Automatic annotation (TrEMBL), chain B:
This is ATP-binding cassette domain-containing protein. One of its GO terms (molecular function) is ATP binding. Keywords: Amino-acid transport, ATP-binding, Cell membrane, Membrane, Nucleotide-binding, Transport. Transmembrane segments: none annotated. Residues 2-231 form the ABC transporter domain. It holds the Pfam family ABC_tran. It comes from Caenimonas koreensis DSM 17982. It comes from the Bacteria. CDD domains: ABC_TM1139_LivF_branched.
TrEMBL record, chain C:
It comes from Caenimonas koreensis DSM 17982. The keyword Transmembrane applies. It is found in: Cell membrane. InterPro entries: ABC_transp_permease, LivM-like. Pfam families: BPD_transp_2. It is a multi-pass membrane protein. GO terms for cellular component: plasma membrane. This is Branched-chain amino acid ABC transporter permease.
Automatic annotation (TrEMBL), chain D:
It comes from Caenimonas koreensis DSM 17982. GO terms for molecular function: ATP binding; ATP hydrolysis activity. PROSITE patterns: ABC_TRANSPORTER_2 (PS50893). Keywords: ATP-binding, Cell membrane, Membrane, Nucleotide-binding, Transport. SMART domains: AAA. Residues 7-248 form the ABC transporter domain. It comes from the Bacteria. CDD domains: ABC_Mj1267_LivG_branched. This is ATP-binding cassette domain-containing protein.
From TrEMBL, chain E:
This is Branched-chain amino acid ABC transporter permease. Belongs to the binding-protein-dependent transport system permease family. LivHM subfamily. Coiled coil: none annotated. It comes from Caenimonas koreensis DSM 17982. One of its GO terms (biological process) is amino acid transport. It comes from the Bacteria. The lineage of its organism: Bacteria, Pseudomonadati, Pseudomonadota, Betaproteobacteria, Burkholderiales.
Length: 388, 231, 438, 260, 315
């Protein structure tokens, strides 16, 4: 397979309100592919990533999937939104069933609905990010050791992700710190709240000393701003403070204590650090989708192992495959195709010299704790159906 | 004061006025008669710059053709449209206010003059004009134009839908306007009133003037009456 | 009772009903196109697009029942197609589980009934009002349903939506609906029948009264009809067809997510129905086709597709507010008077010059987008076969030059055309007057 | 059953806000009579029609149609009971053709209701009736012209056509000849006479020529009351009517010159 | 008490903010009858202009210049586009503003990129205005409330002290007649539309840094400002004001209410279990639906009082 070109179809919003994220991630994939092509990967193949605009819509994703399949793409990658992710997962599964010999592989780099590796798991789907439960394992493990945390307020967007965050947090913390009280829980419609001050008043009244939220985008920044405005200094534990645009908005809102749980952070050194710096030089934008690095590496290793770029063989090779990543070794768990990897808790603060200034804000996310893969590993209910 | 020469008017491609000539002097009431569809309303609109036309419209030595309606109105021409174009959602008083060309007022006529002329309007001054009776609306359009203090007023069928008694009253009023030196171009259907108050009568047929003379000559001219006014 | 007793009644007038040949031809052609389309466009993407066009045609036509025929501007039509989709997919899941013994091909009817059911429910309040209040209530209900759809994963399936498998239940003649082409023909049949039914609706007493309600609701009350009931029934019928299209969409995608009830969807129905032409029955058919082309094809060709879409709407509204259908009808009228032939040179000139303008303008737009989105890929880009250098003055000058020349030539062509067109219209008016007075 | 009146108003009152516009109007019309309603501008003639036809609900009082109470009912309910009206300001379906306008007027009375299971083209009775109407109001030539493209007089004729289309037995016409020339008016009056044979007719008019030519009886409305209700001759002689409405010579001239 | 006071304050300030966002829309809608779908887009360009101008010359000039620029764009749009479709009716007018909102969104993304920009509250106005029960009330929020009130007064003066409103309303039914009475109707339309756009722009200058300035901001506020205008009553400024405050207060207090139908049912003696039909609906808390209450209010209002709170007409 040496010298072969492997084309990957990237499908995420490239136009419309979420284009910023999609564009950045497409560049990240292309950047990683270029950098890890040829001799840089054990299979010696050349990777090429082509963007398809799915507009964030599950139905449109199915169209782009058809378009990609028509054009001979055999590898699909997507990440923005579990809605589109589940649609692709399902469609890829059906496609492979109905078109034997022309199988597709779906590399999921950021859709984190646990269902995708549990009840709805599929042989052709591989997740590079960590799902909601894993992040919550890491987060609760971290919070367990924070004596300051005694009363927690949970707030989230009222849709599956927000509901899952609330649910898993309550389970996890009850297991690890039964003394921590949940003093309040709010679910608000997604994207509908313009003014968070009523919620802040509620949080203040509850006497909470920590906030846990799965909010992202505007729902997160407005919440942080409202807390700042009211002068309420309560640490926030979040999932998505690092997403494009959010750091800028956070910085504009002033100092606040925000923690993020993720499988990577802005201040990696070594290969990934260099990549981030080069990426910034080239695109004047942050490289934060580190899963692209793992993804290409994993594909390369699997192709080398399978001695083929044929998806059916590569998928088989990827099961249980371990590769070196930017933070230790990662393993693609065979039972549910969930990548097992280290998790980080990072804190939002003013960047010191030598630290990476996120979105040129002068702030950064510094890692304050790294957790080995086993800590965040969660059991799966997946009953993988493997092709005969 | 107003001189019209060789006026041609068009609605899109259809040619409606075919070279109209006439003039209106100071303090004169001129009746413009004719059958339905003969082009009288179009003449009025042409003078006000509301339809495409060619020819000469000369108002006090100024060519007004090609000007915008509001510019023409500011030169002192007033127009009372035919189908009671009152503003239905505004009150009677607000309708009158819009007749004034500047918010300060200061014309020859005040609100009170108007209310005195038609007491009925005073009673209804805070009602939405849209619910007024047909006749009340007709009164309102007339007063609204007067509020703009015109020197020449073009009235298109002012007595339409008015009770006989009120028709008489309108006639009286037009005469009073004349006394104040205001010229009137009166477009009418009802011969009786038009003949009784006007100084001169014009008869229009198929888009041009077919008769010009005093009411008396018109009364005498059976042919014109038969050919151009009746069936 | 008196009126018909008039001695002059031409009672024989309707005794003879000629076979309407034109209509037969049109409908046969429509059927033929539906049958032949997938044989011409064979790639799997074009087949999915054709499938979606069928779906879009039904929903746009049903939307136009409200907008074009009833004067009801709805901002929430996706609620009915969307809820139809959801109930269909749930029904399909029951079929998959073997709990419901109905054939898959009838699932869309369930969607239709679901749409109807919700229209009976919501329509009761929305159709109380007309005009702007109607529009606003539909907006409000649309927002509410959409917000709810995210809040209740139990029914709406959360972010991932509800998925299913259409290969289920009995398989008559080996038709599984697994291959896209089989599904296409199912949808084509539905499209044909629904279009036929909706056209038939416009020829019924209720359909006509709906037009009357659009034109002058007050007067309708004085000829014995309850305007609200007319609106209500029409609303329910429209929702039925919307639901059918939703059901077909559920079969096609085999997944239904909350986006199907979103305001974006409703907005898209509105825009494309209008673009196709709301004043003619067949306008929304064009609209539906354009909708799929824009969303699936245009967006792949260029990242600036939303900008183009916005511009197209703006110009369309300003210069041809009747939509594409009205342009077609205007030309048909000219053709009916036998004068279309003279226009082809002008049309060719217009098309060529407009194309030049378009190339110039589009190249510049593409360069701007390229600079913005792909600065790292260097200033070079390829656009419809032309290499452009987004940093090079020559590229910019070239584009501006092409565009300005195009505009100049276009204006010349347009003037010529306008003159000719005006003259022909004048001729037609005269001709019509003449025929009238015969 | 015992009520002989086609239309009866009993002490009808209507206020808008604080102003009372109709102040106890009473009127009884026998079936088959032609009544002209006259009165000064703003007396409440149109309002009276609005109350009868259900456009407004009266504040108090009763309206009986063939002995049945209809006050407070909706316009379409009243229409279904056999009362139809025209409007002072033309009120037709502008984007439908002449034929369609008339057919809309016919449909309910022939019992087609809200059906969408029959084709219009197959409703022979409705189509024949619409054709006949079109012929009667002399618009055959404009069959497929959109109503908004008709001339004013044609629109007025269509207005009447729609009004009589449903075969109502009681017909209210509000200034049917407004805006027409003498000759057109005359033609129109003939038309009205022709199409309302055997029906009860109430019409508002300011043209005394028309009034005296058309009406069997005249009702004079002043300040929301019916102050006189009698034969034309008696009304013309009535001193109060002279003062309130007719004025001096204009009325005479009009009445005399009405025929020209 | 503490919670009540703070919530009331929050509610009123949020209400004023809604009014600030919707005042321009009210102006255009009540006068011209145009449902301006691009209103939120004007709000957005206001914010982006302010961001750029602030970087060049500071916040205070931006407060003046950005609305002016937006107003000019609005006026130009009226003159070259909206005016042409006026004769085709309200649906066409609405759709053309719809089209405009697409274009504005794309252009904004082209100029300022697709992600949020760092537009901050000026130093003079950051920090708390006062502290109540240990909760700070931000100075900038006070500033916003003040501007909202100023807008109210300005529009009110415009409506009552000038005849612009009358001219426009009259021109909606009989434009030619109004012109014949001596009023320059096209110019008045242009000014009003431009004025409405400028108000939106001003709201953008002030709202942009209070919230987040990003291309998605238009979509986020779009629907709710329609609610304000409709609930308040078409054609009524006072109504819009009242509706803003009402929605602000209701929504704020609703966030504080954590009860659901479950509680009510329990009181009525019904047993609702997760197996009960529609359990998800039963367990919904008032606080969870708070942000969508405006839409519920809109639907209810239109059903029971279609004129809106203080409206004078239905359509
Ligand atoms: N907007 C229009 N578009 C096209 N033709 C028109 C228009 N208005 C009037 N016409 C035509 O122009 C001719 C003259 O109309 P005009 O209104 O001036 O007549 P008129 O003498 O005022 O009659 P009327 O008694 O009906 O008011 C008529 O044949 C009429 O059909
Ligand atoms: N909806 C309403 N609200 C307030 N006042 C009204 C309303 N409808 C009618 N009026 C008033 O009632 C009075 C009677 O009006 P109506 O239209 O019945 O008069 P009319 O007798 O038909 O007069 P005309 O002969 O001039 O048409 C008028 O003064 C009018 O202003
Ligand atoms: Mg006229
Ligand atoms: Mg009247």
């Amino acid at each position: 397979q040496k010298g072969e070109t492997v084309r990957i179809a990237f499908m995420d919003p490239l136009s419309g309100p979420f284009a910023n994220v999609g564009q950045n991630q497409l560049k990240s994939w292309q950047f990683a592919a270029e950098r890890l092509s040829g001799a840089k990967n054990p299979a010696g193949v050349k990777f090429e990533v082509v963007g398809f605009d799915n507009k964030g819509s599950p139905q449109e994703s199915l169209n782009t999937l058809k378009a990609a399949a028509d054009q001979g793409f055999r590898y699909i990658t997507q990440g923005n939104g579990s809605g589109a992710g589940l649609a692709i997962l399902d469609a890829v599964s059906k496609y492979n069933e109905r078109n034997p010999g022309k199988e597709l592989i779906y590399l999921n780099y950021a859709a984190v609905d646990p269902a995708m590796t549990n009840e709805k798991c599929d042989y052709w789907h591989f997740r590079l990010d960590a799902d909601t439960t894993m992040k919550m394992e890491a987060l609760t493990s971290f919070m367990k050791d924070q004596p300051k945390v005694t009363k927690v307020y949970v707030i989230g967007q009222n849709y599956s992700h927000g509901q899952q965050v609330a649910k898993y947090f309550k389970e996890g913390i009850a297991r690890k710190r039964p003394d921590v009280k949940i003093v309040g829980e709010d679910l608000h419609p997604i994207g509908q709240v313009k003014d968070f001050s009523p919620y802040v008043a509620k949080i203040k009244q509850s006497g909470a000393d920590a906030i846990v939220t799965g909010n992202w985008g505007q729902d997160l920044t407005l919440l942080v701003k409202a807390l700042n405005d009211a002068g309420l200094k309560v640490p926030m534990y979040t999932y998505y403070a690092g997403v494009t645009g959010t750091p800028t908005a956070l910085a504009a809102g002033g100092d606040s204590e925000v923690y993020v749980v993720a499988y990577g952070h802005a201040n990696h050194t070594g290969e990934l650090g260099a990549m981030g710096a080069d990426f910034f030089k080239k695109f004047s934008d942050d490289y934060y989708t580190y899963a692209t690095y793992n993804g290409i590496n994993l594909l390369g290793a699997a192709m080398a192992k399978a001695k083929s770029t044929e998806p059916a063989k590569v998928a088989k090779a990827m099961e249980g495959l371990a590769v070196k990543s930017f933070a230790g070794e990662v393993t693609m768990r065979a039972s549910d195709h969930q990548l097992q990897q280290s998790m980080f808790i990072t804190k939002w603060q003013k960047a010191k010299k030598g630290e990476y200034s996120v979105e040129k804000t002068g702030y950064t996310f510094v890692p304050i704790k790294e957790m080995a893969p086993y800590i965040s590993s969660t059991p799966t209910s997946c009953q993988m159906k493997r092709p005969a | 004061m107003l001189k019209i020469e060789n006026l041609h008017a068009f609605y899109g491609k259809s040619h409606v006025l075919h070279g109209v000539h006439f003039n209106v002097g100071q303090g004169e009431i001129v009746a413009l008669l004719g059958r339905n569809g003969s082009g009288r309303s179009t003449t009025a609109k042409a003078i006000m710059g509301m339809v495409d036309c060619t020819g000469v419209v000369d108002w006090k030595g100024k060519h007004t053709l090609g000007m915008k309606p509001y510019e023409i109105a500011h030169l002192g021409l007033g127009y009372v449209p035919e189908n009671r174009d009152i503003f239905p959602k505004l009150t009677v008083h607000q309708n009158l206010m819009l007749g004034q060309k500047s918010a300060k007022g200061g014309g020859r006529w005040s609100f009170d003059d108007m209310y005195e002329m038609f007491p009925r309007l005073k009673e209804r001054q805070h009602t939405e004009a849209g619910v007024l009776s047909g006749g009340e609306q007709q009164m309102l359009t007339l007063c609204r134009t007067l509020m703009g203090d015109p020197e020449l007023i073009i009235i298109d069928e002012p007595t339409e839908g008015l009770a006989p008694k009120i028709v008489e009253l309108v006639g009286e009023y037009l005469k009073k306007l004349k006394e104040k030196g205001i010229s009137v171009l009166l477009i009418e259907q009802k011969l009786t009133i038009a003949m009784s108050i006007s100084d001169r009568a014009l008869v229009m047929g198929h888009g041009s003037i077919v008769f010009e003379g005093t009411p008396d000559t018109l009364r005498a001219d059976a042919y014109i009456r038969k050919e151009w006014l009746e069936v | 009772m008196n009126a018909s007793a008039s001695p002059m009644t031409p009672s024989a007038y309707y005794g003879f009903k000629p076979l309407n040949i034109g209509r037969w031809v049109v409908w046969s052609l429509f059927a033929l196109v539906l049958v032949a389309a997938p044989l011409v466009f064979t790639s799997s993407l074009s087949q999915t697009m054709l499938t979606q066009m069928g779906i879009a045609i039904i929903v746009c036509l049903s939307y136009n029942m409200l907008l074009g025929q009833g004067g009801m501007l709805s901002f929430g039509h996706a609620v009915y197609s969307g809820l139809g989709s959801f109930l269909s997919i749930h029904a399909l899941n029951l079929v998959v589980k073997g709990q419901w013994p109905i054939p898959v091909s009838l699932i869309p009817v369930i969607g239709g009934l679901a749409g109807m059911l919700f229209a009976i429910l919501f329509g009761y309040v929305t159709t109380k009002k007309a005009a702007t209040p109607f529009a606003m209530i539909t907006l409000g209900i649309g927002e509410l349903v959409f917000a709810m759809s995210l809040m209740f994963p139990e029914f709406f399936g959360g972010e991932g939506g509800v998925s299913s498998n259409r290969v289920a239940g009995p398989k008559p003649f080996g038709i599984t609906f697994g291959p896209q082409i089989q599904l296409y023909y199912l949808i084509a049949i539905y499209t044909f029948i629904c279009t036929g039914l909706m056209f038939a609706f416009t020829r019924t007493p209720l359909g006509r009264m709906l037009n009357a309600v659009r034109d002058n609701p007050e007067r309708v009350e004085f000829v014995g009809y309850d305007t609200r009931k007319v609106r209500y029934i029409a609303f329910i019928i429209a929702a039925f067809f919307a639901g059918i299209s939703g059901g077909l969409a559920a079969l096609n995608f085999e997944i239904v997510t909350s986006e199907v009830v979103s305001g974006y969807r409703s907005g898209a129905y509105l825009l494309f129905t209008f673009l196709g032409g709301a004043t003619f029955f067949f306008g929304p058919i064009i609209g539906g086709i354009l909708m799929v082309l824009a969303f699936v094809l245009l967006s792949e060709i260029t990242k600036a597709w939303l900008l183009y879409l916005g511009l197209v709407f703006l110009f369309m509204l300003m210069y041809a507010p009747g939509g594409i259908a009205s342009l077609i009808m205007m030309n048909l009228r000219v053709a009916a008077f036998g004068r279309l032939k003279e226009l082809w040179v002008s049309y060719l000139a217009l098309a060529v010059t407009a194309f030049i303008v378009l190339i110039g303008a589009a190249s510049m737009i593409e360069m701007v987008y390229h600079l913005k989105l792909n600065p790292a890929l260097g200033p070079q880009l390829k656009f419809i076969g032309i290499s452009l250098n987004a940093h090079g003055l020559d590229s910019w000058f070239g584009c501006i030059f092409v565009m300005l020349t195009g505009i100049g030539l276009f204006e010349v062509a347009r003037r010529q055309f306008a003159r000719q067109w005006g003259e022909i219209q004048e001729f037609i008016e005269k001709e019509m007057k003449r025929r009238e007075s015969l | 059953m015992s009520n002989p009146y086609a239309l009866e108003l009993k002490d009808l009152r209507k206020s808008f806000g604080k102003t009372e516009i109709i102040r106890g109007a009473s009127l009884a019309v026998n079936a088959g009579e032609r009544i002209a309603v006259i009165g000064p501008n703003g007396a409440g003639k149109s309002t009276l029609f609005n109350l009868i036809s259900g456009r407004f609900a009266p504040t108090s009082g009763e309206v009986l149609l063939n002995g049945n109470r209809i006050d407070g009912l909706k316009p379409f309910e009243i229409n279904r009971m056999g009362l139809s009206r025209s409007f002072q300001i033309t009120n037709i379906f502008p984007k439908l053709s002449v034929f369609e306008n008339l057919r809309c007027g016919v449909l309910w009375s022939l019992g087609y209701k809200y059906t969408f299971l029959k084709f219009l083209a197959d409703l022979d009775d409705a189509n024949e009736r619409a054709e006949a109407l079109m012929h009667m109001i002399k618009l055959d030539r404009k069959r497929d012209v959109l109503a908004m493209n008709l001339t004013y007089a044609e629109q007025r004729a269509l207005e009447i056509g729609i009004t009589i289309a449903g075969g109502a037995t009681v017909i209210l016409l509000d200034e049917p000849t407004a805006g027409m020339s003498k000759s057109e008016t005359r033609r129109f009056i003939e038309l009205i006479k022709e199409v309302t044979v055997g029906k009860t007719l109430l019409t508002v008019e300011h043209d005394m020529g028309v009034v005296f030519g058309l009406a069997d009886k005249i009702a004079v409305v002043v300040y929301g009351e019916v102050i006189a209700y009698d034969t034309p001759e008696a009304v013309r002689a009535n001193q109060r009517v002279q003062e309130a409405y007719l004025g001096s010579h204009v009325a005479e001239a009009q009445a005399a010159g009405g025929g020209h | 008490m503490e919670f009540f006071t703070i919530s009331l304050l929050n509610g009123i300030s949020y209400g004023l903010l809604l009014f600030m966002l919707s005042s321009g829309l009210t102006l255009i809608f009540s006068m011209m009858g145009v449902l301006n779908f691009a209103h939120a887009s004007f709000y957005m360009i206001g914010a982006f202009f302010a961001y750029t101008i602030t970087q060049l010359v500071g916040f205070w000039p931006a407060l003046l210049l950005a609305p002016l620029a937006v107003g000019l764009i609005g006026a130009a749009f009226e003159k070259y586009c909206l005016r042409r479709v006026h004769k085709f009716g309200h649906v066409a007018e609405l759709l053309i503003t719809f089209g405009l909102s697409f274009i504005i969104l794309e252009v904004v993304q082209l100029i300022w990129g697709t992600s949020s920009v760092d537009y901050r509250v000026p130093a003079e106005l950051s920090g708390p205005l006062f502290t109540l029960f240990g909760t700070q009330f931000p100075a900038y929020r006070g500033f916003m409330m003040l501007v909202a009130l100023l807008m109210l007064v300005a529009i009110w003066l415009l409506l009552t002290r000038t005849r612009i409103g009358l001219v426009i309303q009259a021109a909606l039914t009989h434009p030619e007649t109004v012109e014949a009475l001596g009023h320059n109707v096209p110019r008045v339309f242009m000014m009003v539309f431009g004025g409405g756009a400028a108000l939106a722009g001003l709201a953008g200058v002030i709202g942009g840094n209070a919230f987040v300035t990003e291309p998605g901001m238009a979509g986020a506020v779009g629907p709710v400002i329609f609610v304000v205008v409709v609930v308040g009553g078409m054609g009524s400024l006072a109504g819009a004001f009242l509706a803003s405050i009402l929605i602000g207060v209701v929504q704020t207090f609703a966030v504080g209410i954590d009860s659901s139908f479950l509680g009510a049912a329990a009181m009525a003696g019904w047993q609702i279990t997760p197996e009960t039909f529609g359990y998800a609906l039963w367990k919904l808390k008032v606080s969870q639906v708070a942000p969508i209450l405006p839409f519920l209010l809109l639907v209810l209002m239109l059903i029971f009082r279609p004129k809106g709170l203080l409206g004078t007409r239905e359509g």
